[in-house]
Structures are given as structure tokens and as C-alpha cells.
Amino acid sequence: MQPVSRLLGRGRDQHELLRKLTRRGLRGxxxxxxxxxxxxxxxxxxxxxxxxxxxxxxxxxxxxxHAGKIRGHNIRASSSSA
Length: 82
Prior knowledge:
- With about 80 residues, the chain is mainly alpha-helical.
- Helices cover about 55% and strands about 10% of the residues.
- It has one domain (about 5-80).
- It has four helices and two strands, in the order αβαβαα.
- It has a two-stranded parallel sheet.
- Helix 1 (about 15-25) packs parallel to helix 2.
- The longest helix is centred in the last third of the chain and has 13 residues, at about 70-80.
């Protein structure tokens, strides 16, 4: 598994980047794990024909941002014990 997300910076055309990677030999991608950026999701579906999954770290970051301080502590405690 390679962290392609580091290459998918802001202002880059995600479709073109994934096309270039496939031309260079990228094959057999079945799952892409990333943040919920709509352009990344669309490029993964169209160019790689792979499944997209929300990154757990980004998901938890968003949950904790909306949970507030007290609920955030509870969520952290329950998620680290799971």
C-alpha cells in the first residue's frame, strides 16, 4: 500500500495524476483510503475503478471537531479501548 494522498495536493488535477500513475504501471488498486475530497473520490472511481473509503483518522478528526470538549474526551476514551 502506497500513500498516494501525499501526491494529491491542492490545486492538482487528481484525475490527471492518477492517469499518469496508471501509465507508469500502477495496477491492481482495489481500495483507496483518503479524506472526503470530492475530486479524489471521483478520480478513484473513474480512473482506478477502485473502492474509496473514508480515512479513519480524518473521520475521527471531524467527529471530535463537532463533539465539543467533554464529549470529545468520552469519544477518545471509547475509541481507544475498541
